[in-house]
Amino acid sequence: MKTLIVYATQHGCTEKCAENLARQLAGEVRIVDLKKVKKPALDQFEIVIIGGSIHAGRIQKKVRKFCIDNRVRLMSKRLGLFLCCMEEGEKALEQFDQVFPDDLRAHAVARGLFGGAFDFSRMNWIEKAIIKKISKIEDSVSKIKEDEITRFAKIFTTT
Question: For residue 35, what is the domain's CATH number?
């Protein structure tokens, strides 16, 4: 089976998660950054996995646009959706539900909340100041959930 993982990332967390996921999937896997490839060819893939991250309560515009523009074709694929965010529990679920369209969420065979990270080395000074003030975090931190990525991958490797 051929799998396409499409994503967008602000500071690299979603990219890390997409790469980790790709290593755990069987068959041919292609990873596409939507900032570099605007319209990846979907026809050659049986599985499409879409990932993004939350910034100021929203997912990247490129991920949202990809979902809307490809809605019909995505409904004919085995679909996976994942989100990187620092929130946990109900708040993370709410964010997931807000950023992915209802029909795609219902169609997805796998949904994942992969945690998140604040990488200060990849942020500008304004972003750092906002994160420090709101989150009360002074240094880079990663809360990526490796076990959740593995659980998500197993859905595609066992069925």
Answer: 3.40.50.360
